[in-house]
């Protein structure tokens, strides 16, 4: 897949020529707020216990819509250097100022490039001379608004990127950003600096909060500017071009936030594959997926597996408590972390937990979106997990689901299979649950693969796990048993797949036997489609998305090979090759798709859906029976009490 964007280099000369203008803005600008209200003034009035006074509203015709707020001087250098009690600016304060200056210069350079590409620069010259034709005045205004939003977003984007390394665990809630102006680029930047100055006054009490405030403000400006840009014309030149700042390793791709390629340092306890007992298919697919991620090409920003088919973007791991879901996460994270360390790739692992559910309206959704954005960052190899997803993501229509849980559900659904979802193949998301039947049906169906985490099953499995967990500090003889022989992955996986040649769940087995009796062996596309229709008639939740997940799983089976370990240990053999070379090496290993593969994957997926549906229905019935019983008992006691009066 070729990239559609045209790379445009913003050279150091292009950027540094705007340094003087950037410094002048930081030294001081006068700005009259158009939309926002001065936060500092409001806070002062409220703290004095007095109500706010109405702003004077002119009754003169033509002046009624003109703001009567006084212009305020914004001196950001003074504001930043006044943080804390030290008379001299700290290293953090200097870094923040340098970062903002650099971001302003980059934004001005990008705005200038946009202006040249769209002909706006010529219209500006004609406007100065008073020669803009009447027929082009509307175009001129639209281009000015487009340049303003492009410049404003680039400023916030570059600020967030350049100061990412200064971020700490400290976070700040700054409230909504309001002063988003699109009259022209200069006014947009002045408005941004004015509101940033307001936020710094209220929240930046020390260096950590200074950085946190600037980053929180930049994130909100990007979000608001991108939202405004959806309805703003003449932005095609900005959206279709990629501006590259080589010195900062920054690429500006339209209204998509750039993230610094910084990996997360993992402190979890890693597990080796031989320490995962049972769970043969889940373990095998996790090991394959870990190696698939490493095929990602950072130059092309694409993984050959994502193009050829067979890449698992989302998967659902379900099983009873204690069957090894956490161990599976530790194993996969450990594998990917080790591979990335060998190759020198940045690796980012993140878990969405119950800590991300917030009582503040909209905050839970923001937390979930931040989690998604951190993992899908195309500059890193990412692994995101959502453990106990039934507790995190609310089920629509369930009265017990909180607003925060429903916000998380909406974000995950949009991110995993929404209109704007792009699967590059650099990351994967794993959803894990002991009770998948409590997960919203639509969200659960967005899991492209199903990992049944069933833990130890056979006698050999239980001997292996006992020997593993007992450790070595004992003299108990092993007996007649070869440790981990039963965990030989290829042999165990082959047996597990063959076990799905027929359905496991009773409801699905009835459909399978009925269809097979009517049309015979399922050996053609038409017969397989008839079987799928029979499943849909038995379970209305078996929709087109289910078919897509099954075909994706079949493509995974076609890629049913492990990339050789030496390819991971010696990066020059595979990881450091060009995208086309990687793609060719993978295509040589690909296997043909067979009827048995398709039947097994249909049964694996449909078995899981029938299992979830049966559990969900049984739980609902049990709850209703309990409620009816309570109602009857309450009625009996009530009648007894009335009779005793």
TrEMBL record:
Residues 319-452 form the ATPase AAA-type core domain. GO terms for molecular function: ATP binding; ATP hydrolysis activity. This is ATPase family associated with various cellular activities (AAA). It holds the Pfam family AAA. It comes from the Bacteria. It comes from Litoreibacter janthinus.
